[in-house]
Amino acid sequence: MAPIVISEEAKRAANLRVLQRSDSEIVDIVGSATHVVLYEFNANSKAWEKRNVEGSLFIAKRSSFPRFKMIVMNRSSKDNLEIPLASSFQMQVREPYLIFRLEKSVESPSEQKIRGIWFHNGKEREEIVDILNRVIKSLIVTTDVESTASGSESVSFAGISSLPINRENAAASLMAALKIGEGSGSSSQAQQTQQQQQQQQQEQRPIQNQNHVSSNSDNAHETNIQNMTLDKKALKLSLMSLLQDDRFLDLIHAQYLKIVKARSSGNINKK
């Protein structure tokens, strides 16, 4: 009888389900290692001491803060090792360990613990280090963007009051611009016709209650967002937000397929 072969994708899906049992916010696995062992550096004896943690290691992506975690599914006890990854995460490679430093607030407020992860497979350690470097870089960018968004900057409009820069406004503006770009002529004419009809209705019927005021305010806010002109910082902010939006990815992917198809057709015609 032939042995049953389990594909890597099936293993990954099974591991994801296991991780989600302990953390329902985990949405993906961006890296893994088959077997690791945790060590801790003893400052008094100047030596590495083995901890009661060993098993498979995963770099998991989450839908909420913290966006990434390093997790060791512990085979030695019920307590798994979970390290939230932040832009301040520090690590280095010293054979045969991947060394990282825990922040004071994680476990002990009085000292920083230095830990090392031993990998059974040296190639897996290199892959995990590469993934961690990319994750930390992405977190640094996200932190910079969010710190910009929390400031008092605003985006100006022609003849319209300014709106604060935040992920929602910037992303909505970019999406509106992309949708308009698909058919600018007919879309613009339709918008003008709709605005004229709304103006006529407002002239014929006065506002009678607060609900009308609220509706007009919402419409004005939506118009402001659509007319927003993004600077580089706001564009960066919107792109960071939209990368998490499947609608935006679908739109970009559709445009990409059109370009590929057009190039393919062009090459065939040349032949």
Give a quick set of tags describing it:
single chain, 7 helices, two-stranded antiparallel ribbon, seven-stranded antiparallel beta sheet, alpha+beta, 26% strand, globular, 271 residues
Describe the model.
- Strand 8 and strand 9 (160-164) form a beta hairpin.
- This protein has 271 residues and is α+β, with helices and mostly antiparallel strands.
- The protein has helices spanning 8-22, 122-149, 167-181, 184-204, 210-226, 232-242, 246-270, and strands spanning 26-42, 47-62, 68-74, 81-85, 90-94, 97-101, 114-119, 154-157, 160-164.
- Helix 3 packs across helix 6 (232-242).
- The strands form two sheets. Strands 4-3-2-1-7-6-5 form a seven-stranded antiparallel β-sheet.
- It is globular, with a radius of gyration of 26 Å.
- It contains seven helices and nine strands.
The number of helical elements comes to 7
Across the major sheet, the strand order is: 4-3-2-1-7-6-5
Distance between the termini: 52 Å
Summed over residues and divided by their number, the pLDDT gives a mean of 74
Using only CA atoms, what is the Rg?
Answer: 26 Å
- Measured by DSSP, the beta-strand proportion falls in 25-35%
Q: Unreliable runs, pLDDT <50, ≥5 residues?
A: 152-165, 180-190, 206-214
Portion in helices: 40-55%
DSSP summary, beta strand count? 9
- The structural class is alpha+beta
